[in-house]
Design goal:
The chain has 141 residues and is α+β, with helices and mostly antiparallel strands. It has helices spanning 8-44, 47-50, 54-65, 80-86, 91-100; strands at residues 104-110, 113-114, 125-131, 134-140.
């Protein structure tokens, strides 16, 4: 049997699969925590006093302990005019401007060297390409 050397792509796939598994485990833990909270509350409270309000009460509790999802209509979005203004700035200047404007950023390429990045898309994130300490490309995502 031949030993096959693990390629970079295999490493990336393995890392991705491990990340997915870890996220799935965290989701299950969170769902169990919600169920446990409901059980704990039902054991501690006099259900007769709550009567028909119990379902409403549980719904309010779940709303409180469930992470809030940002409404996409309220999220600031990077537009093309904004991106154009970043071109030619130093990396530090661009970084400071992006942060002060309430966006996030990451450098995806510097002086010809590509960096590993996640493939998720965020409308409030700027991806920067830097050459000689200047922004030469800026993209939303």
């Amino acid at each position: 049997m031949h030993d096959i050397e693990e390629t970079d792509l295999d490493k990336v796939i393995k890392c991705y699969e491990e990340s997915i598994e870890a996220l799935e485990k965290e989701i299950l833990k969170f769902q169990e925590a919600i169920k446990d909270r409901k059980k704990d509350l039902s054991a501690c409270l006099d259900l007769k006093k709550l009567g028909k309000d119990w379902d409403i009460f549980l719904q309010k509790v779940e709303e409180e302990i469930t992470p809030k999802i940002i409404d996409e209509t309220q999220m600031k979005v990077v537009d093309n005019k904004y991106l154009e203004k970043l071109l030619g700035m130093s990396e530090k200047q661009a970084s400071e401007k992006i942060k002060s404007d309430g966006f996030i950023h990451r450098t995806i390429k510097r002086d010809g060297e590509d960096f590993w990045v996640t493939q998720d898309i965020r409308e409030d994130r700027v991806n920067l390409t830097i050459s000689n300490n200047k922004v030469i490309e800026a993209h939303r995502g």
